# Entry
Amino acid sequence: MTASTKNAQSTPGILGIDFGTSNSAIAWATPQGTAQLIPLEGDALAMPTAVFYNAEEGSTHFGREAITHYLEGTEGRLMRSLKSLLGSPLLMETTLINHQLVNFQDIVTTYLAALRERATRHLGAAPTRVVMGRPVHFVDDDAARDAQAQDSLRQAAQAVGFTDIAFQLEPIAAALDYERRLTRESTVLVADIGGGTSDFTVVRLGPERMHRANRANDVLATTGVHIGGTDFDQKLSLGQLMPLLGYGHIGPQNREVPNRVFFDLSTWHLINWQYQPKAMAQAKALQTNYTDGRLHERLITVLNERYGHHMAHDVEQAKIRCSQTDSDTTLDLSYIEAGLAAQLGSANLHTHLAQLLANTVACARECVQRAGLTHSKPDAIYLTGGSSALRTFQEALQAEFADVPLVEGDLFGGVASGLVYSQR
# Structure
């Protein structure tokens, strides 16, 4: 145990929790006043926001372990993109897990409890103070549902044992983390592109401002839009995978196969709903809408074998490979049908994501305009959030803000660290 961890036994300090759509991270304030990320899975400082209910052993698993159990074929339920349910009527809906009805609010609480337990194990004492990150908008254009989403997250935090709970906008937290690296005052556009939202902040940062108690006047503008990595994955799945199951297929009456099942199968937090008896019956009834029966057989195989999350995971990983290598990649779908595969290349990223990226960049442009920088540019654009690494997004952002340097930060830990600094 380190000296700082021993000191934490009596006073764990404040936690910063970045509860993300795709990944989560935790930081804590050391006695020296610096933010330190907490390992959540082995040495990993970020953990996928995933819960797997193991039906074979009656156990619950989190993060990478949860995904591994699911992909290895263990019988059970995988839950991902939990944050996307905040502010949604689905949050209080119940689902059958290991012969018990559980609502999604309780699943969010279960995941937060796992985060707090891992922090307690690392620090040697149970923390009670926390600052939770939140997007600029949980829900676009609906203030009531947005407030409801934050309240649901607060209730979950209270349920797991936190008594002093604060919230901070995620892009502002990222800015405060970045500020510690600056040697001169700068006006920065922070782009926080996560799994479910894209948030932007224009903020004045610098070593002379860093120790001010009130930074409200340094925040020039914030904007956000409910677009993120899971939306990118959905578009790529609809474009490259779902046609193999019948999406866009023209049936005997010269009409497309009804497409709701394909949209839900390509949306992380809706996949499980397609395994319900009513949804299964509706999918089987689609057979008469197909000219090519083989496509319908594949759809039913995916539903019967519950391959939806497997396909979504494959798309996500292919997107990352394609972005990192700037080359085509193959998705092996032989678990659905022998020899079945799909391709994903840079051209597909540009084609399928063009509108989403245009809307995201428009949100960044609006933020700069609101900040009064219409006739000038920020000194830098600071990138955080896993989806900010997407090459096509960076290209679209660079095209809008020519000659402004892009600075890649700690994609998964920067917000958590900044949350701690926001409460000093």
Notes: The domain at 3-169 is CATH 3.30.420.40 (Nucleotidyltransferase; domain 5). Residues 1-9 have pLDDT under 50 and may be disordered. The chain has three domains: 3-169, 185-227+356-407, 230-350.
